[in-house]
Amino acid sequence: MTIVIGFEGSANKIGIGIVRDGEVLSNPRRTYITPPGQGFLPSQTAKHHRGVILTVLKEALQEAGLKPADIDCVAYTKGPGMGAPLVTVAIVARTVAQLWDKPLLGVNHCVGHIEMGRLVTHASNPTVLYVSGGNTQVIAYSERRYRIFGETIDIAVGNCLDRFARVIKISNDPSPGYNIEQMAKKGKRYIELPYTVKGMDVSFSGILSYIEEAAEKMLGSGECAAEDLCFSLQETLFAMLVEITERAMAHCGSQEVLIVGGVGCNLRLQEMMGIMCEERGARLFATDERFCIDNGAMIAQAGWEMFRSGQQTELSDSWVTQRYRTDEVEVTWRD
Amino acid sequence: MRAAVMAACSDTQDSVPGRLHFFLNVPFPSEREASIALGSLAPDSEPRKGGISKEMCTAGNILNVKWSADEARILRVSVGSFLDHLALVLETMLEFGPPVPL
């Protein structure tokens, strides 16, 4: 029996989760929500996390019904992500690992999403679409690495959505993407936007510039409603993601797709991906908001796999890093 | 647990003229706890490579931190950030300590 506690706080969510042999025992989380029109900055986000992290840690232990002595390993997010919040969370993880005399494990945030997706959905070897506010990658496993087949060459798809939400000043509660999704359902007009797939990769910064300008012009003149722009933006962005996912599937001969990351909660994205999968005779796997959105249990789960395959992080190597490629990790727990 | 913080500031000891220095000496209830604090705070290097350096070590139950900076502004930011992190370590120790016997 192996019990791992995982600490995650690379963006505006701070979550701590406990996993025991594939079972999620607890997974409490808090989100730092900024007022409409504002994004979250590193120092303010870190301050938010500092304020709640010990409470969330206590909750994680209480909900799991465990004492620190029961924990076998302390896992935390090494990166990628925002510097200040990453450091805040790592500091607590290092401290409790030393207080409790437990081994420490630095986990790659993207690998955390993938391992939690695999655990929850039981997908055997899927093409993974990892889409969030900070990341957009198409990933497939091959020979001990999660290889990046395609990715954004500028901003993440979730970042494009979040920044558009700021332009039209919609609420960030529970998340800007969720509110765009609800508004998109009421969209009636399709407004053509740039479509920027570059081979296996995608680009979103041009679409963002375009729609920011379009919003000012068209909303100002009453030519269209914000709902129409939300709808059009989703249709465009998601079609691009479906295209590059399909391209990777064709390369790998894959019959499974797994969507992970906060944007993976979006039901329209799941619907569009589902249509493509059906056309190819492939299966689509997705998780719900408990695990799509950044959480501690996903770090614990990746940590569980790493720990059981013999990995450990020395304190002196436990520094965090804003840049940490998914394919830098040696996936020692898979063949 | 009490961790009284004593700070001293001097600009005389380094060979580089005009460099600012800041010293922090933090006593802990035990040598082990000072060493735990060092373990938690040392791994991440200064975000800004130029203009500031920081050295940390323990001497018995005291955590010693020494900063050298070119500008007061950079020094302030680094010390302020460190104190926030130190406070977090102390709170964590209060909530989840004392350290288990080895």
UniProtKB/TrEMBL annotation, chain A:
Compartments where found: Cytoplasm; Nucleus
Enzyme class: transferase
GO biological process: tRNA threonylcarbamoyladenosine modification
Reactions catalysed, as given in the entry: L-threonylcarbamoyladenylate + adenosine(37) in tRNA = N(6)-L-threonylcarbamoyladenosine(37) in tRNA + AMP + H(+)
GO cellular component assignments: cytoplasm; EKC/KEOPS complex; nucleus
One MF term in the entry's GO annotations: tRNA N(6)-L-threonylcarbamoyladenine synthase activity
Catalytic activity, EC: 2.3.1.234
Gene3D superfamilies: 3.30.420.40
Domain of life of the native organism: Eukaryota
PROSITE patterns xref list: GLYCOPROTEASE (PS01016)
Cofactor dependence: a divalent metal cation
Leader peptide range in chain numbering: none
Matching Pfam families: TsaD
SUPFAM superfamilies to which the protein is assigned, alphabetical: Actin-like ATPase domain
Coiled coil: none
Cofactor binding note: Binds 1 divalent metal cation per subunit.
Binding-site list for a divalent metal cation: H109, H113, Y130, D294
Binding site for substrate: Y130, V131, S132, G133, G134, D162, G177, E181, N266
Alphabetical keyword list: Acyltransferase, Cytoplasm, Metal-binding, Nucleus, Transferase, tRNA processing
Residues in Gcp-like domain copies: 29-300
Family label: Belongs to the KAE1 / TsaD family.
PANTHER family the record matches: TRNA N6-ADENOSINE THREONYLCARBAMOYLTRANSFERASE (PTHR11735:SF14)
Protein name: N(6)-L-threonylcarbamoyladenine synthase
Organism, as annotated: Paramormyrops kingsleyae
Higher taxonomy: Eukaryota, Metazoa, Chordata, Craniata, Vertebrata
